[in-house]
Amino acid sequence: MGWLGAPTGPLLDNDNQCWYLHASFHPPLLRSATVPKYIAGYEMFSEPQRDITPEAAAATIRAQPEVHYSKKKAQ
Question: What Pfam families is this protein classified in (predicted)?
Fold first, then answer.
């Protein structure tokens, strides 16, 4: 769960009436059907860390086709 609120610090003197207090609940992320991935506090409202190596991610990106899928549809 995470909380987002109005800006603070140097922005505190601005008109912040348009801001709302917002709570978010996130389900646990899974790396497989049997092994739960518990995300750390810094990952909750940032970019989650992936369970693959940079080399595996690069190989996945390189394996993508040159033509975007939406362009293939039009052909």
Answer: GalP_UDP_tr_C
